Amino acid sequence: MTYTTTKVLTFDEFIVQYGDNPRYELIDGKLRDMEPNTSRLSSKQC
Hints:
The chain is built from one helix and two strands, in the order H-E-E. It has 46 residues and is α+β, with helices and mostly antiparallel strands. It has one domain. The protein has a two-stranded antiparallel ribbon with strand order 1-2. The protein starts with 10 loop residues before the first helix and ends in a 13-residue tail after the last strand.
């Protein structure tokens, strides 16, 4: 059986590595890749 560990990032580490990239968020110390919303409704103008 193989176990993988998830490295918990501090806020400072996150800012240094991903601060300029809006694609990633730090949630509970874990890096989350926020997929762009490609829904047709999101691009619809009211």
